[in-house]
Amino acid sequence: MTAVLLLVLPAGGVALGHFIGVDSVAVLLRTPIGGACALAAASLQLAGLLWVRRIAVARPPRDRHQRDLPLAAELLGAVLRVGVPVDHGVLAVARALPLGERLTRVGRALRLGAAPAEAWRHLADLDGAQRLITAAIRSAGSGAALAATLRRIAGDLRAAEADRAEARARRAAVLLVLPLGLCFLPAFVLAGLAPVVIAVVGQLSQ
Question: Per residue in 100-119, pLDDT tens?
């Protein structure tokens, strides 16, 4: 939406010229100086759009497993609260999420009698999973205790993700000031204001 608004700034300048009685389009297309302004404005617009696009895609995409971690913790907590054994609960949740491949390894390891620390290590490389792993190890003998802890962890993970999203949005807003000041506003001046000045100067010189 921001890029679209910035893109129409020069068109707004042309409309402003028509409002005060200047044929900005004719100046841009039929005079050498106007043509140079139009070319420069189009180049700046293109550069600005590419710059904005680069800012938008600069952040690396989050791993889908990382995104599913809060939901996995919440679902597992819900399953355990009704009395399902931990290994069965993990495998049940695994069938519902993209994170399932890792959870399946955890559930199978627990079912085969692996130590909790060994079984839960399959989630160790996910950001924020360490609290979940620590809680699972400490509550290995009590699914009910783990369920209560998982609910709190899920809330904390969601809050942390919200904070990261807000920080990314603030950073993007700051970065957008650069293409606005260096590309879009100069394009507005060249395509919107310069034709008015050129037309006025031409009339005065006659």
Answer: 888 899 999 988 888 888 98
| Under 8 Å between Cβ of 14 and 192 | yes
Report how many domains make up the chain.
Answer: 1
Q: How many angstroms separate the CA atoms of 176 and 183, rounded?
A: 11
pLDDT value for 205: 65
Is residue 65 within 8 Å of 98, Cβ to Cβ? yes
- Looking up residue 124, the CATH number of its domain turns out to be 1.20.81
Distance CA 54, CA 186 (A): 20
Residues ≥6 apart with Cβ < 8 Å to 108: 87, 91
Helix 86-94 to helix 143-179 angle (10° resolution) is: 30
